[in-house]
Amino acid sequence: MKPLPYLAWALGLGLALGPAGNVALAEEDDVTAWRLFVSDHAAPVVHVIDALNGGMLARFSIKGPASLYRSESGRTVFAVQGSAGTVSAISTGIAFHDHGDHGDIDIDDPKLLGLGMTGSKPGHFVERQGLVAQWFDGEDRTRLFTEQDVLDDKANPRSVDVVAPHHGVAVPYDNGAVITIPDPQDASKRPIGARIVGFDGKPVGPDIPCPGLHGSAGSGSLYALACDTGLLLIGQGTGVPVIRHLPYAASLPKGSSSTLIGGRGLQYFIGNYGADRILIVDPSEAGGFRLVQLPTRRVHFAVDPIRAKFAYVVTEDGQLHQVDVLKGEIVKSLKLTQPYSMDGHWSDPRPRVAVAGDRIVVTDPLASTLHLVNAADFTAAGEIKVDGRPFNVVAVGGSGKVHDHAAENQSQP
């Protein structure tokens, strides 16, 4: 694999390769590191790629094709392998430590951890404040555990009763979880509501209706579940969560969201609303819904965690669109890939989007390529070739200070 032109440019400015191949400043203690974790559409493998120079850092063999989820801290990436009935965990090798006036960064090699959680049809993964809820569609219990236990290879999950196997989700909180309620007539249909339960599985308060429940995401202190009638917004209460219903505005055309993502830096949600529109939701106000028309059908979308007012949408004509969530409109578009029709099977290989610092990354599975886009001016910034069909992608990284702690300790009296 050829390194990106960035590497030669960096070395020409006197930069050096830092730990594990990441680019770092040679004479200062500020370091930037970004890594891409990329799963294959068909092969049981996860590639780890240095986003700054395009170099391959690791290749992990797992049990099946995986959906990838990064933890809130960025220390762990979870590979949920639905067809193989397995959940694996990867230490990203990047960790941050907050010291108030500055943040430290530790950079190590990524590694496959000992977690090998098995079960029937693992599905939705949700983390809130360090507690993870891993759902299994084929089981009547969901499992809760902490990221730290996984990193320490001590995972001993609690399990919480979810009544019956169904395609649902659990949202963890300090003393239990919010779980979906299966349709009592036919559990294969979408859930009909949400229930707050303790670790013992017993309800805490009344059930909350949410017909046609499908789609969930977190943004700031809120976690949202999408219903046919609007969103259920879950907030942290005293001891137990507080849930309120945000109905769709009467001004919207008939429809609903079934896929959600949550804003970072700004509190908002984006959902699908028909094949060729997205819905921007301001959860702070009633009627805070805005539709954005897309030129063709939506393939995938993601938010920008750094430039908080932007989100990105790939459409089936091969374009990447920059959406200003404050204005509620597409502001820039860029042709990147061949067309990827949304006709065919829902799980066919199609592009996915992630943001790695100043680069937007779009997978192109049929071309075995990752496309890079400069987030500052929304122009093409290079490509990374990846064997197979690169599909799901998550990015982990940032900037921090690296200290020689051994030298500091020696200098102390």
UniProtKB/TrEMBL annotation:
Keyword Signal carried by entry: yes
InterPro entries: AztD-like (IPR047697), N2O_reductase_N (IPR011045), WD40/YVTN_repeat-like_dom_sf (IPR015943)
Keywords: Signal
Signal peptide interval: 1-26
Glycosyltransferase recorded as keyword: no
Domain of life: Bacteria
Family annotation (NCBIfam families): AztD
Entry protein name: Zinc metallochaperone AztD
Species of origin: Labrys neptuniae
Species lineage: Bacteria, Pseudomonadati, Pseudomonadota, Alphaproteobacteria, Hyphomicrobiales
